[in-house]
Amino acid sequence: MVRKRRYELPLDDGSPTDAEVPSVFPVLDKRTKKHLKEVALSLLYAISVMTVAYLQRNWLSFYQREVVEQLVYSRRSSTVKPFSYIKTSSSFWTWSETHLMDALYDDGNENSLQSHSFYLVQRAKLRQERVSQDVPCTIPNDVPLSTLGYCKEPFLSHNKDWDDYGIGWSRRNDTRHNVTDPGLLAWTHRTTEDLREYSFHGDHGVYHGGGYQVELTKNRTDSVAIIRSLRTNDWIDEKTRAVFVQLTLYNPNSNLLTSVLLSVEFSVIGAAFPSHEVLIFPPYFGFSDLPVSFLSSEIILLALSGYFVYVEGWRMYKMSFRYFKHFWHILDAIIIAQAFGSFGVFFFTQYVADIIHHQMDAVDEEGAWGSFVNYRRVAIWSQTYTYMLGILISMVTVKLLHVLGSMINGVTLLSATMSEAAGPLSGFSVIFFISLAAFAQMVFLVVGNNLFTYSTFVGTLQEMLNWMLGDFDYDNVTSVSRALGPIIVFTFNISFQLFLIMVFATILCEALAMIRVKAEQEPRRDDLPPTLQTLVMEGTKSLRVRYHQAKVTRKCRDVVVYEFETKNVTGIELLCFDQSFDDRNE
Fold this sequence. Notes:
By secondary structure, the chain is an alpha+beta fold. It is built from 15 helices and 13 strands. The strands form four sheets. Strands 1, 2, 5, 8, 9, 10 and 11 form a seven-stranded antiparallel sheet that branches. A two-stranded antiparallel ribbon has the order 3-4. It has a two-stranded antiparallel ribbon with strand order 6-7.
């Protein structure tokens, strides 16, 4: 007779029980959990800001700007030089009759904007700002000249011309409100509010909008006739200080708008200085036009910013004025202010875009002269929003490095090294900037009158920084002064590359060595959270133990004991099954 009975037996193979296996995540105290929460939120906030910034800037913006610049600003031909070579009013008129007309009107030529899928949103326009009158010249007695007549006045707000004129800048008695002759429109002054213009900061003045405006037509022949009439009647004369050509383009393939502003400044010395501004921005005229991904990212960023306002507000309430004694608390407050400032600019941009949209509807209905809708306003505010996001990203990244500093050894080492070297670096910075300013002043005085990049002291400082990186224009500098040029370049390289830079590196190396010594001698404080390396190692160890237990348990899901009794022998037999007893009987 054989009897069979089933028992559940513990495994005696050395594998740990559940009570002996540590958790995958180590036991964390309250301080460590709070710090990990701060790290996670800071990381999520940084990702949100970067996502919004990435969705704000279309990757085709750069290429669209390049194409527009090549067609409008940089295009040259065998007979006409590009816009950047304009030096006189005559060359401006020649460029306007040829290259500008080729770009605006598609007459089968490959240089038109329309052949590259750029379409004019509205008519192109020309605008100028001028001074009201010149002043008599004051000539020193040593100058052997009897009289020079009148000298040119720089463009300032107090001497801006506000009067209305007849053709050829002749005086007329009627006011601009009574203008009905289209031929007088180019000679009638319009205010900034009338033209809906924004100010333009040029190299030789700040132009606050307004002036004398001419709108071109949709027909090339008529536009050329307008330009030739203006040229014949001296629309640009000795009192003109700046002329602007403004276009607004749309590319349906990239779904981007382009605001083009070409300017020629006529300085008091009689020379012309061309410049250009090309701004790319999306055609979002209201929240309904915004992409879902971008709007969702904005909402998430706004929610996180609101949470940080609550956290920092509560901390400021508890700490009172002691809150502002800590640099990182001040940085948190600045980040919050910058974030909500960015939101303010974003909402205002949408508000301006909505106004532009309604103005375009009014222009389509009225079709009146002087109703040019300035898309440049939207472009400037959109660009401002992008800049503010860039500043916000930099500050959030610094904050993220700080909260990660106590958990990642490399970040901790970097911040500790910079703190240790702060004193020596402050003294070194004084010597460095004094030396840089001295060399910049010397280069500015020697070559500033001959080379454009060194024509201003600020530009010379920028070039000095390029010299430190090895990008110096040796040929041009030495061509100006064959004696001082090589001496300046050689002395600068010896002083900065072989001396000051090596001193800077030595300070950092010494600080790093001191931090390593302190780290070896001083144990880690107990009040600091565990490092990321410790968390990963303990979690990995726990996972390995659990895997070993599961592997052993998988071999014997059920142990069955057979008790048998025969005539001669009595005993038991252990059987290990991959399935439980109940599963095998189903």
